[in-house]
Each structure stands twice: as C-alpha cells, then as structure tokens.
Amino acid sequence: MPSEKTFRVGLIQMSCGPDPDANLEKAADRVREAARQGADIICLPELFRAQYFCQREDIALFDLAEPIPGPGTEKLGAIAREAGVVVIASLFERRAPGLYHNTAAILERDGRVAGIYRKMHIPDDPLYYEKFYFTPGDLGFRAFDTSKGKIGALVCWDQWYPEGARITALQGANVLFYPTAIGWHPHEKEEYGVAQYEAWQTIQRAHAIANGVYVAAVNRVGHEHGDIRGNRAQGPGLEFWGGSFLADPFGRVLANASHDREEILIGEIDLEQMEDTRRNWPFLRDRRIDAYAPIVNRFLDDEAQ
After folding, report:
1. Sign of the C-alpha dihedral, residues 165, 171, 174, 178?
2. Residue 301: pLDDT band with limits 50, 70, 90
3. What SS3 state is found at 113?
C-alpha cells in the first residue's frame, strides 16, 4: 500500500470527432496536460476513440475494435510511462473473432496494462444499442492495486447499480471511476433533461456515501450522430451532457464540469478523510450480511420466496 495519504485524480471531459486516430491523439494530449496539472491517476471517458457509434446497429463498426494490449494501450501506456501517471482508458475490445467487450484498461506508471475491467451491465435502449456490439463482462467487479492504492473502474451503465459499487468497494477500492458516454435525446431534453442529469449524479453520490469511497464520473460532451469517417447514424443524434464530477466519501461534490465544454477536472483524494468518514458513518460495520441472500434473485415473487 503506498504511503501517501493524498493524491490527485484528473478527469478528462472531451468531445470526440469522426476520426478515431485523431481522438486518440487528442486524448493523449489531454492526459499529458492533466499530468502537468498534478494528476496522479487520469481517467478518460467511455469509448473515447470514436464518436458514440452504438446509436445504430452496423456490423461494419466492429472494425473499430482493438485487442488489449493494442494500439490504444500502447499509445497511452507510453504517455503513462513518460509522465509517471496511472491512466484509465475505456476501449472497444476485440477479444476474439466475433467476441467484443466494452473494456476499461488500467495502465500503470511504467506503461504496462495492470488489469482490465469488462463492462458488466449492457444497455439496449433507443440510440444506445450496446447489446449488438458488446458481450457482458465475465471478469466480475474488480479493484486494482496501483502505485496510488486500490481503485475500481466500472463503466457507464454500471453507474446505476449499487451492487457493482458495493462489491468493488468491499475489495478495498478507495476511488470508483466511471468512464461514461451518456446524454440527452434532443426531443426529451426540455422536459426531462434536468431530472435525468440529477438522477445520474445522485445515484453515484449515493454510491460514495453508502460505501465511504470517492466516486469520479467522467463523461464526454458534444452533439453526436456516431459519425465514423463519414458513416453516421440517421436521426436526431445525442447531446452528451458532460457534467463530469468528483464526489467525496460523504457524497459532497468536490469538482464539477460544465454541460457543454471540454474540461480537465483535478481533484484531491484524501485517504485520512475517507477513514474518518467511515468511522463516523460505519455503514460497512453495520451491514447485515446474514440477511442479504435474497439479493441474488431476479425478483422476489412467490416462487422465489
């Protein structure tokens, strides 16, 4: 366990263009800048190498996938080594022919891939057709030992599930990172936009409180049609709402980005504050682990009881 009681995280809120190679270069530049600003662990948004392509089902888009290790981890691993930082990179993983995952790679300060997390919860909603592209994760929820201590990396739709946050925290994670691509359907924004964003932030702040950990949510910005070198989805597209933030172990928002600008958020993780919070609000101590068996049921109908 590292001896430092404090370290800094950098959250890269960025927009994505139609050229995957240009997006990788842009992400690399943002990682360098976050390192210059003092970040020790830097997280990029979900699937940052491309515009959000899951707005339609197109078999040709499987060509965007890459192996891990691969080009994305090689490029960012070199920067991690150069800057002496840990990087969390969300990638479209090609595991084998016909087998693909939405995967977060943890790159250590020496540039190596220290571990991967494969997104467990896969949505299938209008303009979020992820089940077409991604196989559900099979590695479970994981905490990773890094040079700055244990962290968790879950991905986007995982944000809504307290079970994933809890299991990762129980493995010793001090910070839960959530690389994200979430936004408004343009026709819904006026009526539901504020409520949708507030629900998204509230559920993650609740993960911080319930588990006594820091939570870092990292989103993209911009209005996208999933344009990949001129191949774009039909329809109104998605307006990604940004709003990346860092919450402390009592759910207080320490840093919060805008809804429409590219930004780099830098926030401090204080492990002594985390322990002090858990001492005063001992939720982990008072858990009734003897009473939670029903949680493994899909629904507690009469047969399950």
Report:
1. negative
2. confident
3. strand
Contact indicator for 269, 8 with CB cutoff of 8 Å: yes
User: Can you give the pLDDT at residue 305?
Assistant: 58
Place of tokens 């800057």: 83
Which two tokens mark 9?
């995280």
What letter does residue 207 receive in the DSSP assignment? H
- Are the C-beta atoms of 10 and 266 separated by less than 8 Å? yes
More confident: 4 or 176: 176
Protein fold of 6-296: Nitrilase/N-carbamoyl-D-aminoacid amidohydrolase (3.60.110)
Query: CA-to-CA distance for 68 and 41, rounded, in angstroms?
Result: 20
Residue 13 in tokens: 């809120």
**Which residues carry out catalysis?**
46, 119, 156
The domain ranges of the chain are 6-296
Could you give the C-alpha distances from 274 to 163, 176, 252, 305, in angstroms and in order?
Answer: 20, 13, 12, 38
Q: Which residues contact 14 (CB under 8 A, 6 or more apart)?
A: 26, 27, 30, 44, 45, 48, 220, 221, 262
pTM, two decimal places: 0.96
Taking alpha carbons only, the member of 35, 118, 37 closest to residue 78 is 35
